[in-house]
Write a structure and sequence with these properties.
single chain, mainly alpha
Length: 201
C-alpha cells in the first residue's frame, strides 16, 4: 500500500468515526426536542399524533401483528412465530429504506419524541420497551448512514473503503435486525398480554 493510499484510508477512518457521532447527536436532539414539545404543549402533540396513531393502527403491519397475537394466544406458536418473522422482516426493510433519507429520519425521531413525551402513551411505552428500542434504532441507523456516506464518498473519489466503515454498516444492520424483531415480539405479544384490557391499544 502506498503512502497516499494509507493517508486516504486514515482520513476515511477518521471521518467514519466522527460522522456517526454527529448523526447520533442530531437525531437525539430532534428526539429530545419532540419530548420537550410534548411536555410543554401536549395539545399540539396530541393533534399531531392522533392521525399518525390511527394510521399505524390501520396499517398492514398492525393487522398482521393482531393476527400473530391471535395465533400465539390460541397456542399456535409455530404459525405465530413464522408470521412474526415476516413482520420483523417488513419492519427491517422499512427501517433500512428510511436510513437512506436522513431528513426523514430526523423528522421521524421528532415524532417519536412527541410520542414518548405524551403522558397518554406512558404505560404503553414502558410495557413495550419503546424507549430502548427507539434508542437502538437511532444508534443503528446512525451507524448505517455513517458507513453508507463513506461508501458513496469512496466511490466518488475512487478511493478504497476503510474496514471501519464496513464494520459500521454491518454493525448497524445487526442492530436493526435485533430492534426490529424485538419490537415485533414486544408489540405483537407482550403488549397484548399486559394492555389487552386497555381500549384503543
Amino acid at each position: 500500500m502506498s503512502i497516499i493510499e494509507h493517508s486516504v484510508n486514515i482520513e476515511h477512518e477518521r471521518l467514519a468515526k466522527v460522522l456517526p457521532v454527529i448523526l447520533i447527536v442530531i437525531y437525539s436532539s430532534t428526539l429530545l426536542f419532540g419530548i420537550s414539545v410534548a411536555s410543554t404543549n401536549p395539545t399540539y402533540a396530541h393533534e399531531i399524533l392522533s392521525p399518525i396513531v390511527q394510521d399505524i393502527e390501520e396499517s398492514l403491519l398492525t393487522k398482521l401483528c393482531h393476527e400473530a397475537s391471535s395465533l400465539w394466544f390460541n397456542e399456535k406458536i409455530l404459525e405465530a412465530l413464522l408470521l412474526m418473522v415476516i413482520i420483523g422482516f417488513l419492519r427491517l426493510a422499512s427501517e433500512a429504506i428510511t436510513a437512506l433519507i436522513p431528513p426523514y429520519v430526523a423528522f421521524t425521531y421528532f415524532i417519536e419524541g412527541l410520542f414518548i413525551g405524551t403522558s397518554e402513551y406512558v404505560e404503553r411505552i414502558l410495557v413495550t420497551m419503546y424507549i430502548p428500542i427507539t434508542v437502538g434504532d437511532l444508534l443503528s441507523i446512525s451507524l448505517i448512514e455513517g458507513g453508507l456516506f463513506q461508501l458513496v464518498l469512496s466511490k466518488v473519489k475512487n478511493k478504497p473503503l476503510g474496514n471501519f466503515s464496513i464494520m459500521l454498516i454491518i454493525t448497524g444492520f445487526i442492530g436493526l435486525i435485533v430492534t426490529s424483531y424485538l419490537a415485533t415480539f414486544s408489540s405483537c405479544v407482550i403488549e397484548r398480554i399486559v394492555l389487552s384490557y386497555k381500549p384503543g391499544f
